Amino acid sequence: MEPVEPVAWNGGEEGAGLVAEQGKVVVITGASSGVGRACARRFASRGWSVVLAARRTAELEEVAAACRKHRGARALVVPTDVTDAEAVEHLARRAVTAFGRIDVWVNNASVAAFGSLDEIPPAVFRRVLDVDVMGYAHGARAALGVMREQGDGTLINVSSVVGAAVVPYNIPYVISKAAVRALSGSLRQELRLAGQHGVHVCTVLPSTMDTPFFRSAANYSGRKVLPMAPVYTAERAARTVLRLTRRPRRETYVGPAGRLLGIQSKLAPGLVERLLARQMDRSHLSRKEPAAPTSGNVLRPLPEAAAVSGGWHGRRRTAVRRLAVATLAVGAVLATGRRARCGCGRR
């Protein structure tokens, strides 16, 4: 295999700890757009060597070119379908051959299908689970195989807030993100029992992200998919992922709304289910704009240009939405308190 040479620094970001991070290696799946693309740029800005995986080669090359502009950063493109276990093992081997090790592996590649259970075709339903669950399992197997030999490393599994607080009309994605949390927990137990204390497994639960995700998803609901407020930038998720490489944690949310929702779902699961069902029906699926059935990017990549942003984020609009979510949260907490005092709803 051809060596991957560093390029001359052409500007880039600097900050505390930059030198200490240079030379570290990260593998990112789903790196062509959205959160994965933002993570690649964030790691490269710190001087990391980035190994970029997704189905679309041209888009990965664009990301790699941007990453190489940063001081000390090197980039390797490895087109990969994460549902193929052998392809994912090949991805790990390419990373080790090029850079000698894998310090961090970010399982991020995900697809989704909107619609009720009886509306989503079985083949599309199955493909979502193959990408979002088996793809993560293949990635974990490949990454941890390398990290166990090294004696250190961090596997970061990108789940979702819906893995903690379920929503309707997106069942295969919700199932998969709950499964990702379970996968991470089981892996942590196995590593602890094996005495692999230098290898960490972290789970990230993003709130709604401003990425092309909602336009790219399969949709059989008959209604246009809109992001559920509040919306956070993909760069915010990338900063969270990078922080976990320095201080690994079991789980961490991206965005205060997601963290609050996770707490509420533990305190009042029934109430949160009802509130999220209503919010999903009223605001996540448009009542005004119809949408033709589409498999989106589930079965095959879309020809559209990849990007980090989906064009959903706006500071003023997000501030208003955050206020609305906070108001809803206070109402939920007060309702829970009243139930607890009067003993209502006990079974």
TrEMBL record:
Keywords: Oxidoreductase. This is SDR family oxidoreductase. InterPro entries: KR_dom, NAD(P)-bd_dom_sf, Sc_DH/Rdtase_CS, SDR_fam. PANTHER family: DEHYDROGENASE/REDUCTASE SDR FAMILY MEMBER 7B, DEHYDROGENASE_REDUCTASE SDR FAMILY MEMBER 7B. The keyword DNA-binding does not apply. Residues 24-202 form the Ketoreductase domain. It holds the Pfam family adh_short. Belongs to the short-chain dehydrogenases/reductases (SDR) family. Signal peptide: none annotated.
